[in-house]
Design a protein that fits this description.
Shape: elongated
Number of helices: 3
Structural class: mainly beta
Helix content: under 10%
Oligomer: single chain
Low-confidence stretches: 1-30, 58-101, 333-338
Mean pLDDT: 74
Strand content: 25-35%
């Protein structure tokens, strides 16, 4: 039986529940002590220890600061390039000019495509399906007029959702009901591309499709974090019983529970949309922000390792716990559609 797709929200529930205990935590005054933390300290989401600010968490950089964001990220390119720093090898509707220099992104050094491998390759994942129940993968290898290469990959089936236009709207349209790691139909750019004979290795940024949505958001300075968020607080959620605060989760039928809020630096409730609470709040901040604005963050890089042999290709992708993929060269444009 094929594995079911794991929702993004389920993977962070434990970390969010730990953050919810801050208000009633006993006093903890030393850095790197286990959470919960005392007033004035934050719980580092990735290590579950206390620190003065998220910026000072060991092995972790707060979203929206300049420089790197984890071991694989670099500095965003100059204004006028896309989210990936490339010149347009994803769907143009998602490749918008950037004004977010200094936000985290994956490195994208130039590369070339072997002429014999240029074109479209289509195939499937073994023992894995996306929410649409599709197991499809489409890989495009193209060459720019200047000689540089483009690699992009489409996962699953269907057409990419229309770019968002409302900062308070839900995107993709069914995201709050069924939050997913990947957006089917979107062409993800390849980063860190490496060639070795007929072997191709690269990674994609799972947050890349949210670039347009993040650019619509307002950037707020959160004093307690010494950092920026697209909500005026550290995390977002909904009011629970007896004045408690619960993370953004879904009900049994998949819908969001209750109106969503965040707490500002003074502890006051601020209303936010549940979509903003999901992508702007800790522990997984999909939209990174700084003083200039917001853009898609880098929360994870999915790795591809594919070897080409004639008109066939096979390899592995680190989706879920890792799954093999099989591809063949598409014979025409119609065959390239998943």
């Amino acid at each position: 039986m094929k594995d079911s797709f794991v929702a993004r929200s389920s993977s962070v529930t434990a970390s969010v529940l730990a953050l919810m205990t801050l208000a009633c935590a006993p006093s903890v005054s030393l850095q790197n002590r286990p959470c919960p933390c005392s007033d004035g300290w934050v719980c580092c989401p990735s290590t579950d220890v206390c620190a003065p600010t998220v910026r000072s968490c060991s092995g972790e950089q707060a979203a929206g600061t300049s420089g790197t964001a984890g071991a694989t990220t670099g500095t965003a390119g100059a204004a006028g390039t896309s989210d990936s720093g490339s010149t347009g090898n994803i769907d143009a509707s998602f490749d918008q000019p950037r004004s977010d220099a200094g936000l985290p992104m994956l490195p994208n050094p130039p590369y070339t495509i072997q002429p014999a491998l240029q074109g479209t390759w289509v195939g499937y994942f073994e023992n894995f399906t996306f929410p649409s129940l599709s197991d499809a993968i489409r890989l495009s290898l193209t060459q720019n007029p200047d000689g540089s290469g483009n690699v992009s990959v489409v996962l699953g089936a269907g057409t990419a959702p229309a770019p968002p236009t409302d900062p308070n709207g839900i995107w993709p349209p069914d995201e709050l009901r069924h939050p997913y790691e990947y957006v089917e139909g979107v062409a993800y750019d390849a980063y860190e591309v490496q060639w070795s004979a007929g072997r191709l290795k690269f990674v994609i940024n799972i947050d890349e499709p949210w670039q347009a949505y993040c650019q619509l958001q307002t950037s707020y300075y959160v004093k307690s974090l010494d950092d920026y968020r697209c909500i005026p607080g550290f995390q977002g959620g909904h009011p629970g019983p007896e004045g408690t605060f619960e993370p953004v989760i879904t009900s049994a039928d998949g819908g969001p529970i209750g109106p969503c809020i965040t707490f500002d630096d003074d502890g006051h409730q601020q209303p936010v949309t549940c979509m903003q609470a999901l992508v702007c709040g800790a522990p997984k901040v999909t939209c990174a922000c700084n003083a200039a604005g917001c853009a898609a963050n880098v929360n994870g890089a999915t790795a591809f390792d594919i070897t080409f042999t004639g008109s066939m290709a096979a390899g592995n992708v680190t989706i879920d716990k890792g799954h093999d993929v099989m591809l063949t060269r598409a014979v025409n444009a119609d065959a390239a559609q998943p």
